[in-house]
TrEMBL record:
<keyword id="KW-0479">Metal-binding</keyword>
<feature type="domain" description="Nudix hydrolase">
    <location>
        <begin position="23"/>
        <end position="154"/>
    </location>
</feature>
<dbReference type="Pfam" id="PF00293">
    <property type="entry name" value="NUDIX"/>
</dbReference>
<dbReference type="InterPro" id="IPR015797">
    <property type="entry name" value="NUDIX_hydrolase-like_dom_sf"/>
</dbReference>
<keyword id="KW-0464">Manganese</keyword>
<dbReference type="InterPro" id="IPR045121">
    <property type="entry name" value="CoAse"/>
</dbReference>
<protein>
    <submittedName>
        <fullName>CoA pyrophosphatase</fullName>
    </submittedName>
</protein>
<dbReference type="InterPro" id="IPR000086">
    <property type="entry name" value="NUDIX_hydrolase_dom"/>
</dbReference>
<keyword id="KW-0378">Hydrolase</keyword>
<keyword id="KW-0460">Magnesium</keyword>
Length: 204
């Protein structure tokens, strides 16, 4: 390849996360509502009828659809569908840091204010119940953090002869921090808790 063509290719390339085209992309909204005692965070409990993670606590959200204008639009659309509210009821939407999951997902979290929360009518096919927790609880409570370790298991035909050390290669262990918040009988954990912790760090 000629140098001029090489330079043109590099100049017109838009950097992205390597391999991101193979990742599933999701958007979620951390919903805030104003109550008499201050701001609260709204949570959903996933319907027990769902095949994936039934009964778990989460934020509104889901897979980004090709018809969505962008990640923010996807987060708002999913919130509208799951909480049964109008798009106009969601204001002050801001982006948080996006997250790469070791399970092949990119998650784009947002935070926004839900106005007229009395109009919320959860979609029963997706949402078993909703509840709120004062934001002050999370501002004053650190999450418990536990680590999950992943074991490296190369497939049967892995070419050990091509790497230094062969079958005795010193694979680097991988770990994942899992976050937990406990509020009464509610346990908020996993990705939801990690997004929540990140949001609190920004505020503090």
């Amino acid at each position: 390849m000629e140098l001029t063509k090489l330079v043109t290719k590099l100049q017109t390339h838009t950097p992205k996360i390597l391999g991101s085209e193979k990742f599933s992309k999701y958007a979620v909204l951390l919903p805030l509502i104003q109550k008499a005692d201050g701001l609260h965070v709204l949570f959903e409990v996933r319907s027990l009828e769902l095949r994936r993670q039934p009964g778990e606590i989460c934020f509104p959200g889901g897979r980004i659809d090709p018809k969505d204008a962008d990640e923010k639009g996807a987060a708002i659309r999913e919130t509208v569908e799951e909480l049964g509210i109008h798009k106009e009821n969601i204001t002050g939407v801001f982006q948080l840091d996006f997250m790469l999951s070791p399970f092949g997902m990119i998650v784009y979290p947002y935070v926004g204010l839900i106005n007229s929360p009395e109009d919320i009518q959860p979609n029963p096919s997706e949402v078993g119940e909703i509840f709120t927790v004062p934001l002050s609880f999370f501002m004053n409570t650190k999450p418990e953090i536990y680590q999950i370790n992943f074991k490296v298991e190369p497939e049967g035909n892995f070419p050990f002869n091509l790497i230094p050390g062969g079958e005795n290669y010193n694979w680097r262990a991988r770990g994942l921090d899992e976050y937990f918040y406990t509020y009464g009988e509610k346990v908020i954990w996993g990705l939801t808790a990690k997004i929540l912790s990140h949001f609190v760090e920004i505020l503090q």
